Amino acid sequence: ELKVEQNPLFLSMQEGKNYTIYCNYSTTSDRLYWYRQDPGKSLESLFVLLSNGAVKQEGRLMASLDTKARLSTLHITAAVHDLSATYFCAVDTNNDMRFGAGTRLTVKP
Amino acid sequence: EPEVTQTPSHQVTQMGQEVILRCVPISNHLYFYWYRQILGQKVEFLVSFYNNEISEKSEIFDDQFSVERPDGSNFTLKIRSTKLEDSAMYFCASRDRPGNEKLFFGSGTQLSVL
Q1: Lowest CB count within 10 Å: A45, B9, B22, B93, which one?
Q2: Which residue is closest to A6 within chain B, CA to CA?
Q3: Rounded to whole angstroms, how far apart are CA atoms A8 and A10?
Q4: Contact (CB<8Å) B56/A98
Q5: pLDDT tens digits for A12-25?
């Protein structure tokens, strides 16, 4: 069964600091997604990574994919309070998309 | 941007009752999904649906659950006899093809089973 593991599950960081969230998965896939969820809200698509070595950046967030290591990272640069949310990675297996447990990020002033 | 629409936004029901959660996927999409999220927990896959049949289902999707596309626009999830542990947020999602397209999620239906 496909397993998707994220770490850390909880992350508290100061504004202005950098940090990386990791997503490991157990099957061969070259399609990985990152989503953001605010409390009580739906899932907002952040990044779609479709090949080994893919790197995408949007504002203070940068996502990468290493399909050989079965690892994706979401790097946060100079965090700001607005980035506080839960971040999910998800691995696409054609028939469905399996999610990690999520990383609850809190950015403190 | 086109949206996946879910109704109702909140549903309260008694244990043992049947509920139907409704979704209107984006109009040109062909692949449909239901996920659920128990409060504060991970997003769990329930079922995927294509060409009027289930493509894949998880172990959560037991005989109490069923899905249907009754017409050209709606996609429904039915829970035949609700249990307390069915209380969760249920998300519908759609895309026009698997793999290269992001999944568009609806805003969810919060189901509370009393």
Answers
A1: B9
A2: B42
A3: 5
A4: no
A5: 999 999 999 999 99
